[in-house]
Amino acid sequence: MRDEKREKCAFANDLRPSRLAATQSGALAWSVVAILFVASQSTAADSPPLKDFLGVCGHTVLFRPALYRPAVGFVRDYHPMDWDTGSDPSTPTTFPFAKNRVHWETVYGSWKKEKFDVNVCVMFDVFKPEVWKNPSEAAEKYGEAFAKAFGPSSKLPYVSSVEIGNEPGLYDDAMYRKIFEGMAKGLRNGDPKIKIATCAMVVGKSHRYAKSVDCVKGLESLYDVLTMHTYAEKEPWPTFKRSYPEDPTIKYLKDVKAVQDWRDANAPGKPVWVTEFGWDASTKKPPTTGDFAKWVGNTEAQQADWLVRSTLLFMKMKVDRAYVYFFNDDDAPHMHGSAGLTRKFVPKPAFHALANLQRILGDCRFEKVVHETPGRTYVYEFVKTTGKPTRVWAAWAANGKVDLGVDAPVQRDGEATGEVLQHRPGAPMMTKVPIKGGTASMLLGESPIFITWKVAR
């Protein structure tokens, strides 16, 4: 598809272009599976609990921190650099005010008040490349001023991390490296405690929506985090279809693994953050003409379940942090037009699903794989990091319904208690999981169930 058509898929404030997408194919498959449990020997003792893992992408003055706090603990801001400098990126800043008089102390201070960890993505590609007269110097001065104003060591310690760019594909690789290196040096000088992150990275060649990891190769001392974006793309324009996260035919999880593998070989120990993932769920039909006439969205139930399951998959993959795209939408029936956790600031099923996930697993970290048939059935074990030792199994079927038998972690016959993920607020929906002959039997669906095992470790 041509770039000019892709450009029309930008979200409302035109801060970033969108990319291609995909959807779930049709009918539910039914099967019966009985599988003995083979315990994974690997653990993830250093993995963060859910409350320190999941965030949402917001935008400056539009984000309402108190509204989103039940669902996520982190927020990522698309921060337009030209708000701070005007039309010339070398113009000195006036922090805590932006040049357009937005008061960043008020904005980020309100987020911090709600106990959010704040990650700022500096959108420097709001400038055309030729506007930068001395990109290294201008970027360094900006980075230093920003870190001194808002870094963890400052008088306004609101920002814990900064991404140098979002999807700056209109800049060539050499230009990006100059700006990245300059801004990273400035951030490091301004506050050594602030975490410095890359723009969206991809293994292989740079493209319109990501920069090659080779752009930052050799600059490991200047950054702390590698970031990437991943979407469950099934088909390109004109349908923009998205699929379910476990779909073995798409690159959704494979791209994450590729960045992690590159990290292991070239920047060992650096965290990898997925700073955008999500699905659209509009109640409206697409337009009859134009680029989105054949657009295929997802249901609200799919958006809710797939965000939750992606979160569980990312935790199992040892991704260090993940941010849902997007915080709010206006129910527009096109790509990235209905990806919000809220619609016109009213919580959608996806919001309630993530809030329920936080309630169930907020204090839990990923422990091990109990059972996994890729693309089909999943049972992951999480352990509580506070209070009494507790194991929680998250179990689901990727596409359809499946009867599954898995070795139980208790010897006696009886039953365990499971909670079915709900897409609404209110009392939990509980289910019984019978145990007979050492096997726990469960009917799995696309909404995960969470089984609590109160057994000694």
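Second entry:
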Amino acid sequence: MTALRHVHLATGLSVRSDGAVLLVASRYPNVPQALWNLPGGRQEPGELLVQTVAREVFEETGLRVRVGELAYVSESYDRNDDVHFVNATFCIAIEQADAAHELRVPGEGAGDHVVEVAWIPASQLAAHIRVEVVREPLLAYLRGDLQRRYAGFSEAGITIRWPSEPT
């Protein structure tokens, strides 16, 4: 039996005044279509989750942000790979100096998996975000009905392999 791996993730939630939400589309070696998600990613050793959010949002979008309150925590298990994911989603505010900055996608060969960055209208979020463990907590939070600001899934419903991992 393989030992269970624990992966800590942190994502940032930015909602514009018109209700659009900042999302990124990422490609993974084992998934044929890009997956939409909030900007964010894996915590590095010695890094606090709020630092992870700020770093990842900048790496994926080119935007510098202030990390605010914790919006919600979600967790899931990928039983195929014996991985336990815990994701902390924080409210983020784009820093004023960068407010006019155009969204950018990391350059080719930069080692990043992000292929698109966009403000998605709230009415289109469910259609864009295909992965239930990402979509459902976000939609529930935005509706104001995410009990305890927590969502748990005994099955992730998807296996993700990052570009830095073997396929």
